[in-house]
Amino acid sequence: MSPTRRARKEEQKEERRRFIIDAAWQLFQETPYPEVTMAQVAERTRLAKGTLYLYFTTKEELFLAVVDQELAKWFHDVDIHLTHFCASRGDASAAGPRPSRARRGAPGAPAEDAPASVASILSTTLAARDAMTRLLGILHSVLEQNVSYEAALRFKLSLLGHVERTGVLLERCLPSLAPGHGGPTLIRMYALLIGMRQVCDPSDVIRDIRSRPDMGLFRINFGEEIRASFALLLSGASAPPLAPGRLGAPALGGLSSAERRRPEG
């Protein structure tokens, strides 16, 4: 086979792979994940069920690819918003495409408001992607449990690239965030998001219990809570470190190293 024909064949395979992913994504938005079957995906794509398994060995592997695709779109959107926010605060190096007026962060926000503005950007774009966040809620407990090493590695490498790039932008938007801390901060937000999504998707029994007048504390608005939680996390992450005295260091200051290591009792 000539290089040209081989390249075209690979192109066609990738196009079909994306076609299958898009069909699965559409089905998920219409049907709860447990009810989606590979047979339904095959019917939606008009492909033989066996053909699907040439591209994805399990249903979980297929939906892991769906998560990868939708996360890529979200990160792209967030990067545009963060780039504009940085530029609006005077960081010319971050200049780039401008998001629509309705979805921009607060232009010219003072430094102390930056964590809240960034939290708003992240939470608003996530709240607009309800189906994606519902998939993230089952990512670790379901989707990553029945996949090949190759599929899992492909997903993690893709996620790592997104987190590293957006982490750099996060550091530009929050100058007090230490260099190299943008990525780890995003991972903490990612874990917080998954936990909040799970709390907001209860079983029917728990949903009925939450409707009781005395259970108002457990009725959580995902969009509002994720915004508030992100703002708290970013405020703490970008705050200057506590002085040693505020950590109780003076109480140990007069002790020798041997005394500090001495067990109690």
Automatic annotation (TrEMBL):
Pfam families: TetR_C_34 (PF17929), TetR_N (PF00440). Residues 37-56 bind DNA. Residues 90-113 are annotated as: Disordered. Keywords: DNA-binding. One of its GO terms (molecular function) is DNA-binding transcription factor activity. Residues 92-113 have a biased composition (Low complexity). The keyword DNA-binding applies. InterPro entries: Homeodomain-like_sf, HTH-type_TetR-like_transc_reg, HTH_TetR, TetR_C_34. Residues 14-74 form the HTH tetR-type domain. The keyword Lyase does not apply. It comes from the Bacteria. This is Transcriptional regulator, TetR family. It comes from Sorangium cellulosum (strain So ce56).
